[in-house]
Design brief:
The protein is built from 17 helices and no strands. The chain is an all-alpha fold. The protein has two domains: about 130 residues, Leucine-rich Repeat Variant; about 140 residues, Leucine-rich Repeat Variant (Alpha Horseshoe), CATH 1.25.10.10. The radius of gyration is 23 Å and the shape is elongated. The protein starts with a helix and ends with a helix.
């Protein structure tokens, strides 16, 4: 009965407005004015109530508010560990199955914040295959798709779980070409993580990519996209160097990323970018240009 009353109290706060969210924020944000810090046990107790609520309610409004509150709290390292120790990651992870797109987005955002913690990643990794599938199935440029891409980007900062995306590389390049500016930037951030790992190089170069990919190296492309596209090329070159072999020593099929990057059309674009007005673009192009 006591648990039910606790849940009812938190639910009431959420339904009535931001009161419960603010209360938990005050409890978990760390140092307060005057230097006094609340005991971690009090933060844990509030987060425990919130997780119980999230697990037990079917109300979409309460669920969404609870996920937002958890996601905000998960931005703090202490809370990331507390939520994991309370068994909160599967509770949040189950919400990515929701048919409600707003709930799904909030769940992905919460997992994204939780994934900053390396220990949490060992539990979040089980959701990576599903998130990959959902990213390709979700509406193009949607908030849910971007939230999924951000989570995958966090999960590939180290090499530990990059192999889980091996079968998704072609889909990522497809999104890169079709998406708007925000989607392009987020996909490129993810591809940059993969491109820094020599173990992923051959898989990247062998993927079939539409020739429109080379338009990313046009001089008029926004710098936030152009610089990342150039860095992608640089990283691949660097990985080949680490492995002690040249790109032309590896057999790749026509239409692959290899044929695009190391073909004459791309060479012409690199020579043009070597005269680009932006210093950073120019330097990256000059670093790549000797490869041709």
């Amino acid at each position: 009965m006591g648990g039910a009353r606790d849940v009812g109290w938190v639910a009431a706060g959420l339904v009535l407005g931001a009161g419960a969210c603010y209360c938990i924020y005050r409890l978990t944000r760390g140092p307060r004015r005057g230097g006094r810090r609340l005991r971690p046990s009090r933060s844990a107790e509030q987060l425990k109530k919130l997780l119980y609520l999230l697990e037990s309610t079917d109300d979409p409004v309460i669920t969404e508010k609870a996920l937002v509150t958890l996601g905000n709290n998960a931005a703090f390292s202490t809370n990331q560990a507390i939520i994991r120790e309370l068994g909160g990651i599967p509770i949040v992870g189950n919400k990515i199955n929701s048919l409600n797109q707003s709930i799904k987005e909030k769940a992905l955002n919460a997992l994204n914040n939780l994934s900053v913690n390396v220990e949490n990643q060992t539990k979040i990794k089980i959701y990576v295959p599903q998130v990959c599938e959902d990213v390709f199935a979700d509406p193009l440029n949607s908030a849910v798709q971007l939230a999924g891409l951000r989570l995958l980007t966090n999960m590939t900062v180290t090499n530990d779980y990059q192999h889980l995306l091996s079968g998704s590389v072609a889909g990522l390049f497809h999104l890169l070409l079709l998406g708007n500016g925000s989607t392009k930037v987020q996909v490129l951030k993810l591809l940059l993580n993969l491109s820094e790992n020599p173990a992923m190089t051959e898989g990247l170069l062998s993927v079939q990519v539409d020739s429109s990919f080379l338009s990313l190296y046009d001089g008029q492309v926004a710098n936030e996209i152009l610089l990342r596209a150039l860095t992608l090329f640089q990283n691949i070159n660097n990985c080949l160097k680490v492995e002690g072999r040249l790109a032309n020593q590896i057999p790749f099929a026509k239409g692959s990323l290899f044929f695009l990057l190391y073909g004459e059309e791309c060479a012409q674009k690199m020579r043009a970018l070597a005269c680009h007005h932006d210093v950073d673009v120019k330097e990256k192009a000059l670093a790549i240009k000797p490869k041709f």
